[in-house]
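Quick check before the chapter quiz. The format below is the same one you will see on the exam, so make sure you can read both the input and the output lines.
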Amino acid sequence: MLHLHGKKIKVYSLKYLFIAVLLFGAVAAEAQKTIYMDDHDSKPYYFGITLSTNIARFHTSLHSQFLNQDSIYVAEPVNSGGFALGLVGTARLSNRFEGRFNPQLVFTDRSIFYKLKFKDYDGDSITKRVESVITSFPFQVKFNSDRIGNFRVYMLGGVKFDYDLASNAQSRKADDLIKLKKLDYGIEAGIGFNFYFESFIFSPEIKISNGLGNIHSRDENLKYSNVLDRIQSRMIVFSIHLEG
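Here is the expected output.
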């Protein structure tokens, strides 16, 4: 059921993003006769705000301790959701390329499902949620297509550096705790669409964000932690940028 729920979240998010792109594409198509912000592409830099939602999960690898114990049968990540708020600053590098800095405050939680051999007060299975409040600092390069009227497509790629304000790596020991480190880094890639209006640019975007570091602060004494070795972050992000 947890896997099905995660898939439903992903399908619904994709559906809503697709609908939003179609709606604003239709509006932009109606306005093709009037070219808005025709001098915008010559600006050396510009700014905006970002609103986004995400589908997040851990990517885990099991520790050898998993084979040496008999209390946990299954330990696997499941999908969860979250949202983010941020600012965006973009600098023109050439006719095709732009550099972008998009700091965000990300609210998300990620979960791990455990199947237990012996029942406890929660039954024979339990899902451990790890809540995070992340300050994320992505640095990206955008490759822009030709502008067609008030519409343009772009691709992006870059790196990110994250700091988890809610990290529990230094928390006191508890049997049901999964500890995470504060710092993480990773790579990102995605695609977006610029819709030009009279006084702003509406830019829906989808990107994949993969952490490269091991954020697991493993503790031999915690049964839900010691069966796991590496934990890396995975996220699909749906963003709306409003730029001027």
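If your answer matched, good. Confidence is low (pLDDT under 50) at residues 1-11.
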